[in-house]
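Materials and Methods. Structural model of Twin-arginine translocation pathway signal. The 199-residue sequence of Twin-arginine translocation pathway signal from Mycolicibacterium diernhoferi was retrieved and submitted for structure prediction as follows.
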Amino acid sequence: MTIDNDTETDTDTEIDTDTTATPDPPVHGGPVRTLLRGAGRFWAAIVLVLALAVTGGLTAWLYVNQYRPDSQTGPVAAEAAIKAASDGTVALLSYSPDSLEADFAAARAQLTGDFLNYYNQFTEQIVTPAATKNAVQTQAAVVNAAVSELHPDRAVVLVFLNQNTVSKENPDGSFSTSSVKVGLSKVDGTWLISAFDPV
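The predicted structure was written out as tokens:
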């Protein structure tokens, strides 16, 4: 009986040794599968970055080529052009002998380009002597105005107005109606009058 027990013990020991010597199967499919999975994540990240870049570029292109021009020629821009043309027309055609310099300065602030140069010369050589000598006083009021052309950097506005003029020769005043085509140029984001043509 002693011999049999020893034999059983030896057999058990051999079985235990064989079990511990067998390696465990790989859990994640081995190093090749791990490498492929890492490469897949890398390319997915590259594709994502490229997609974001393309989307950002498309958004920028749409803003520059569609949204900005539309916003610069839409209803808000039209209203700004009409207001600039109306305010400028009133400033150009309204003056009093008691405040000529201030009146002319207010008008000049709303003009640009060659028309500004013309206005300076016209008021100095013609308006100032006549207004001073004959006490000419004029007051203009805009009745209606509408955009004729509108571009991001230039516009044309048709202005309808009434004008009342008083002088020494005509103290009761004279009333007239007229219309002018006001050309505007955008300078540093502000509409300024660059042309003024009676219609």
